[in-house]
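User: I'm curious what two different proteins look like when written out as structure tokens. Can you demonstrate?

Assistant: Sure. I'll show them one after the other, since each token string lines up with its own sequence. Here's the first protein:
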Amino acid sequence: MKVAPKSACMIEMDSEELITELNFKHVIVDERLQGQEFNIRKMFDLLPATIADKRTLRVVEIHDLFKAVDHTETMVGSARLFHSLMNPSQSIELVYAKQDSYCELENNTRLQEAIHDFLGEFAKSEADLFKILNVHTHPLIAYGDYQKAVQAIERMLTATARLPQPETSYLDSLFKNISSFNGSPVRSIVGGAAYRTFDGVKARQEIGRFTPSLRFRPSRISLGSLWPAFPGAFFGVAWLSGLMDPFLAKTLCFSTSWFSVVGFIYGLVLKPMFDYDTAILPIRQRLVDSNRFASAIESVAAIDELLSFVRFSQAMPHPTVLPEVTNEVNHFFVAKNLRNPIIAKDDTEYVATDVNLTGARLTFVTGPNSGGKTTYCKTIVQNQILAQIGAPVVASGAMINMADRITYQAPAFDTLSDDEGRFGTELKVTRDIFYSVTPQSLTILDEIAEGTTTQEKVSFSADIMNGFFAVGNNTLLVTHSHELVRDFQDRGKGQYLQVEFKDQKPTHRIIPGISIDSHALRVAEKIGFSPRDIENHLRQKGYLGDGDTL
């Protein structure tokens, strides 16, 4: 059953950072790229790290998580969703508000359909709007592109007026943000009359009675392009109608007709270029600088993101639920039948697992390779991120505390530039993580103190894990060192989990206990590099006789 706790649906919303300015500076939404308008890689590179560093986001496959959750209908909606995944909210009020509106939207089919129609209407002309915003036009054809952008804004406002009144504060505020653009001077400029002044392009209400101004008309046809043809036309009529001496009228008609060429050139080339520099680009800049316009576009994106959460839940072949999110001093994560959102969306047989990271501080995960340890840890982080953006998690029930920092250290092998080698490289990463955590942090360590002797590894690892235990945050260590885990078990510190195996095959469940098996032979046989495979290869190549053995 996909319901949220009542406490998660009663809090007022907070504000969120806008993505619109990022696009205006770096063009992360490029309407010219058919099918790839939103540049997810570019946005990843441009956005600064927040509660999760970029190394962590790469390890937990943030791009694949985005693809799993993304059911947006607009380019701005896609950008907003990825922005949220990269920057999980630290405002529990915002999480509650989004959960509140999610509840309303999930249970109101009429509202879902209305928002779907609204987003579809916006998407029809979204590319036209961004063509002007991104300045992907040419002065000689800018009139048509400008008018299409104006029509896109008109459609957005008209479609907003047709939306039903929501009951929740988050959705209501988003609808109002779009509608409030109607009352701004910039709206008057793009929807009515724009006047060029010495202080830039202004709306009628922004200029005084005696302010020198020139009205902008987005058309090649104007008095300036037509008046040069008036003399020739006048004398031509006089010649044909007999109002003047035929010879004189004919002479004057032909002698002034070339003026129309000047008007034609003015209307075809000069006026469009002049208007582009003095009106269209300044109007575009006013849109970019308008807080109300940015808020309106961001609100469209946020509405799309919220509907995407509902579609994600509907498309998932496994139970999803809005977690009960808390903001206690110490981080905890409890979930029933938790699944990996990336894998589970395409696998109806995906095995769920229960997670209880409450009060243990340290959790040691042991077991053979390819048993599911890494997937287990990634699943926790991915669902933590979903919880902190107000989305449902893939579980039948969950209670998740806000994390002020999410870090995932995985083995790195790019140590050529490090004088300390692999051990030094990994230790520096662990050091940086340790110095940054608080009791509210979620930390995953996939092996630590690698690249040294077994004895030193156990000793260093014990010191490091004791440090994390003292901080009191939630730290998970994936390790093959059962000696290290036994040491902490003897001291009564932490909890101990292992990969479950049946008939020498992993069940992909995580159960209590400490694994002392590596199952290295099983992995070697699976990839075709067991001792038998090596001997067979040597015999086939003639390096080993039929009776010889290694």
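Here's a second, unrelated protein for contrast:
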Amino acid sequence: MKQIGRYRVCGILGKGGMSKVYVVLLPVIDRIGALKLLNPHPHLLELLGEKTLRSLFISEARTLAGLRHPNIVDILDFDEADGKLFYVMDYYANNLGVLIGETYQSEKPSRIIRIDRAIHYAWLTLEGLSRLHHAGIIHRDIKPFNILVTEDEGVKISDFGLSKIRGEVFEGPPNLKVGSPYYAAPEQEAHPDAVDFSADIYSMGVIMYRMLTGFLPGYSENTPQQVPKPSRLNPDLAEDWDAFLMRAMAENPLDRYPSANIMLEDLNRLAAEWEVRRDRVCVLNPVPQESQVKMSQKRTLRSEGCKISIRNAPGVFGLDPLWRPQSYPLNNFVMENESTIRDLATGLIWQKGGGEYPIPWRQALDYIASLNQNRLGGYNCWRLPTIDELMSLLTPMPQGTDFCIKPIFDPKCRWLWSIDRCTFTSAWYVSFDLGFVFHQEINARFYVKSVCSIP
């Protein structure tokens, strides 16, 4: 097994032009962490030189170490191994890029985040930005993949490799691009050293636009065009959202929100107005009662776990290009007792709640064994569900009166492990509230919702 210094490598999380990030095991205590190793692309090494890159990497680590905030990632250690610098952080499996389904072809459509979740993620990110800006730090690379999402739905801003202190000038080559396409402010692309805090505000506006509409501004048809108003792309957004997002993404920095705190104030106002609007819709348009729902024909779903590659998964699971079900079943849920729910449409018995805490995949198997030992709900046939079975619980992204439907299952359990493997070190899971299927390292911490089949 590969080692970096005293850390054992369990897998790779990702790589960029300047570094690679690994999943590692901390010695003695066996805690999972994320290790960022300075490993620049040869082209970047040629442009900047090793001395400059090492200086930038050390500066990034010092920036992180000097901040303490619940919405900024913490640094645990800094060291050097075989001539390469690295630092270690807490490990978080998910990020906004994964949740919206963004790929390297960024201009392609992404998944829409339901309004309440988008507000939540944006609010926490702005809180983190406020702390950065208070310290005089401009991030310059705020994008979905740099917004980590914790197991309890917290947010951690990460990747400070491009950050700068306000007023600081870095003499890099004129052809060096700072920031990520589509998310970097216009003035940052032209003069990266001249940007102010408003550059991060612009990036935050683009992230929110994408979360709420599924598109990058001006790319609703995969080709550049005038930026459509968000309310035109998402009918659940009032027109006030148009003004809010357009101000954040204004081409002129002086026309944007002057600070993250002031943007937060407007976001809080919009959140309160949306809740009032949602509640009013629910009063005027009550959802059908359970007795009004038609019963579908009983379906038999795959119950045996299997190993399915990333390449084959969309076809095997029946997923669209954004990893969502191509069709949704009609369930017929009946509450058996306080612990279990039966779906008459599939014959499956589901755990109503789920695990109390998110846990790694192997611990999920131990949790299932304990349910059988204690005969939850009077049954001892509990097991970890397949992706096919978990997908039978998914519904389309809520719109209009869909927000009025009270969840049958515990809404806390948002990310659910399946028994299906992707590789030796990863397994498939379902995002229960965002309605998609994806794979993750088995060291990630997700919830468990057990299922039982009765002949």
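A detail about the second structure: The longest helix spans residues 260-284.
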